[in-house]
Each structure stands twice: as C-alpha cells, then as structure tokens.
Amino acid sequence: MKQFTKNSPENIDAILEKFVADGIDSIILDLRDNLGGLLDAAVNIVDEFVEAGTVVYTKGRRQKRRDFSANENGSYLRGRGHVVVLVNGNSASAAEIVSGALQCLGRAVVVGERSYGKGSVQNLMRVMGDEALLKLTTAYYYLQNGRLLHRKLDSRDWGINPGIKVSLSMEKRSTVLRLHNKAGLLKEFDAVVRKKRLEDLYSADLQLQAAVLVLNLQKMKDSLAAGHPAVAGRKEPS
Q1: What is the pTM (predicted TM-score) of this model?
Q2: Which of 32, 156, 177, 234 has the least CB density, counted as fewest CB within 10 Å?
Q3: Sequence ranges of the chain with CATH classification 3.90.226.10
Q4: Is residue 83 classed as helix, strand or coil in its secondary structure?
Q5: How many CA atoms lie within 13 A of 221 on its CB side?
Q6: Fold type of domain 8-167
Q7: β-strand 66-69 against 82-87: which pairing, if any?
C-alpha cells in the first residue's frame, strides 16, 4: 500500500475476503514508502485484523483524549492467519498507526527499519485576516500502550521500531524499488515473465525474505503445537 485513501478499507476488505475464501493463512502488508493518508482509513484497516482494543488515541495540552477503537467485524481476525508488516524510514503517519497498532495489539510482527515519526494533529488557523494561514499542532497520536508516534526535536525514540530489524543500503533499496515497479505491471505479461520477475524481486528484497521467514517460523510453531512435527520446507511467494 502506497497511501491510505477513502477507498482503501473497502479495497482491503475485498482482498481479505478473497484470501479467506482461498484459505490463505499468511499475509505480508507492505507499508514501506507509504507516507500516510486518512486516519479513518488507517483505523478501519486495523479493524480488519483485530477484534477489540484501542487502535490509536489523540491527546493534546488543551485537548482531551480521544480514542479510536476496533470492533469484531473484521475479515481477517485473529486465528485466521499470521500477519507481517514491512516498514522503512519513509513509512509515516497513517502507515505508522497501522503498523504500530497491529504490533501493539499483538496481531503482527513488524519487519524492516524504524519509521519516519509523524504523528501530529494539525489545524489551519487564519491570521492577519485572510492573508495567511498558520498550521498549529493541537494534539499527538499515541498507541494503546502510550507510545508517542511523533518525532519531536529532543526525541531519542520515535515512530515504530520493528520487532525484526532488516536494513537496506541505498543501492539495494534502489534496486528493490525498481523491481517492485516492474512487478506492478505483471498483468501485462505471460506466466513465464511474471514468475521470473517475482523471483528477481524476492532475491533482491532482504526485508521481504525476512518477512517470509517469520511467517514460516510461525507456521512451524503452530504445526508443532498441534502435534504435527512434519512441516513443509520454505516456499517462496507466488
């Protein structure tokens, strides 16, 4: 996902319903380079994965706390599969709310690099009549555990810290971005080309590889807990 728009929850819901129907039991939600978008969209998407709990809340010096909470109406609630979220230094705002909430509520493992740290509520105020506008920060976003998302001038910690840190060099990141852009056009090519391009992307994207490894380990744990020691080997995403 590159942005959170008013259509994002509806689109995600349709995708997740298809996943459930197809028996897909593991999801990687890629929020790298996602600069954010609408708060309501972020809250509704988190709601697809959790039954209850505070997704995020706002609080300011002169503003009372306001909670945004989940309910039981999601398509991919706990028990239907595992979730990994990918983030990097350009994951901001709504992307940090989604990844942070899923991490805080124990629904997903976050993989990648620490996020940008943009979690402020800002309002525009007219000054000097109608000649200028002043952008005023009135509150900040916090996760359920009280973690402040916003990076302030004196911050030593901010945004979302991945549970599993995997960094990409600038050169590797440029390669992955180029391959991702090519993968976005796969519907225009036949199965052989699609397979080759996905293999190239997977080979270059160390963060994606780490996410797949996490999901396979979680599935192995589930299998052992259920008394089935025989677990299939690693399968690359198709």
Answers
A1: 0.88
A2: 156
A3: 8-167
A4: strand
A5: 8
A6: 2-enoyl-CoA Hydratase; Chain A, domain 1 (3.90.226)
A7: unpaired
